[in-house]
Write a structure and sequence with these properties.
Elements (H helix, E strand, L loop, with lengths): L3 H5 L2 E4 L7 H14 L3 E4 L4 H8 L4 E6 L8 H13 L4 E5 L2 H5 L3 H14 L4 E5 L7 H14 L3 E3 L11 H10 L5 E5 L5 H9 L2 E6 L1 H10 L1
Parallel strand pairs: 1-2, 1-8, 2-3, 3-4, 4-5, 5-6, 6-7, 7-8
Helix pairs in contact: 2-3, 4-6, 6-7, 7-8
């Protein structure tokens, strides 16, 4: 079985709630450093502060077009460039789900490519909000993300009607190209579930619960 320290390396330690304060974000950063997670995933307004606070000791991840994905492409491109300027190392963007549902696959691909171009050298994760999609739409997004040059396909924002499922992670892993990794996010609440997602092919986990569980075990 994967050990606790190894498991933590997969975790984007996350705080994205609307009422998050800097004090809470700073505490999240301290926890991430203590437990050696992959990154902290935080609201865009705190990226500059967190980047300065962490001083390069921990990767800073933020979100683009979050949580609905329906802002304009131009605004998402600006958000991405601004996040990079403020010190973000990783960006998790939400697709335009309405475009996907309407069959506007070229629009979805073009938007991801434009965001990719605005954050060169940074890790780009594409949130597809799988709970709102059919299996065919999920597979279509696997093709689009593979063609876009993005680094990850991500299951969920955690703000919609459902989060990551084992079936979705297995489906995404089976259909993305070899250059694309899978991030499971939303509703990951046990260590056993976290390990199962990794066994199914996820290489990142978006969660705040795993660090809390680790802290409770060592308390």
């Amino acid at each position: 079985m994967m050990g606790d320290e190894e498991l933590l390396k997969y975790v984007d330690h996350t705080l994205l709630k609307a009422d998050a304060t800097w004090e809470q974000v700073r505490a999240l950063c301290d926890e991430a450093l203590l437990y050696k997670t992959a990154s902290v995933c935080i609201p865009p307004c705190y990226v500059a502060q967190a980047s300065a606070y962490l001083g390069g000791k921990m990767r800073v991840c933020t979100v683009i077009g979050f949580p609905n994905g329906s802002s304009s492409t131009a605004s998402k491109v600006y958000e991405a460039a601004d996040a990079v300027q403020n010190g973000a190392d990783e960006l998790d963007m939400v697709i335009n789900i309405g475009w996907l549902k309407s069959g506007k696959y070229d629009y979805v691909l073009d938007e991801i490519k434009r965001i990719r171009a605005s954050c060169p050298g940074k890790i780009l994760k594409v949130i597809i909000e799988a709970c709102l999609l059919t299996d065919d739409e999920k597979i279509q997004m696997c093709r689009i993300v593979t063609d876009s040059g993005a680094d990850f396909i991500k299951t969920s924002t955690g703000f919609s009607s459902g989060g990551a499922t084992f079936d979705d992670v297995a489906l995404l892993k089976a259909n993305v190209g070899p250059s694309v990794q899978v991030k499971a996010a939303g509703g990951i609440s046990t260590l056993d579930d976290a390990r199962k997602f990794i066994e199914l092919g996820a290489t990142r986990l978006g969660t705040s619960r795993i660090v809390k569980l680790m802290a409770e075990r060592t308390a």
